[in-house]
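Run log, item B.
One chain of 208 residues. Sequence copied directly from the ordering sheet:
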Amino acid sequence: MNAPQRMPRREAIKWMLAASATVAALDVRALGAPAVKGYGPDPNLMDFYNPGDLWPLTLMEAQRRTVTALCDVIIPADDKSPAASEVKVVDFIDEWISAPYELQQGHRKIILDGLGWIEAEAKRRFKNDFASLTETQQRAICDDISYEPQAGRRFKRAAKFFAIFRDVTAGGFYTTPVGWRDIGYVGNVPLERFDGPPPEVLKHVGLA
């Protein structure tokens, strides 16, 4: 069987415009068609996109400074890898909360509200914005919201924010090549030889 011919992009756009013009001219209610909500097809994950190519981004410059500082409290630089912000985790978080999907939109409000709380708390305690605080001052705030089950009543909502923000930060960091190396993940690369799982792993799963 011959492979189907791929329609040129310009020709596909012409067909799409013609179809949309036709649909716009119809009385959809008269056809009995239900109203449909959605956000369109998923992006082509094989393409390369720059920040903001897929949807408008959310974070303002001041918020990006807060996110940068908070990311680096969660994953600071060490002798193995750079800080989270150095591998563009801030861009990842901005894309995440800007995406039109249900989960991300839920996180968007929680994270934006949480960033506002972080700034208000920094000014209340230390009379400065969070990014300008010392590392000790930043950690003092984060320590109060770092574990939701033990957070005080005043910090419960902030602790929920911090739990989500920490997960998104880790997700952004550990899906980069730097993050892979940090946890020893090799990935899909050719090996000269493969000796199978080590004995301790086989013993752990009851196969040795």
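Observations after the first pass:
- Residues 1-34 have pLDDT under 50 and may be disordered.
- The CA atoms of residues 194 and 206 lie 21 Å apart.
Flagged for discussion on Thursday.
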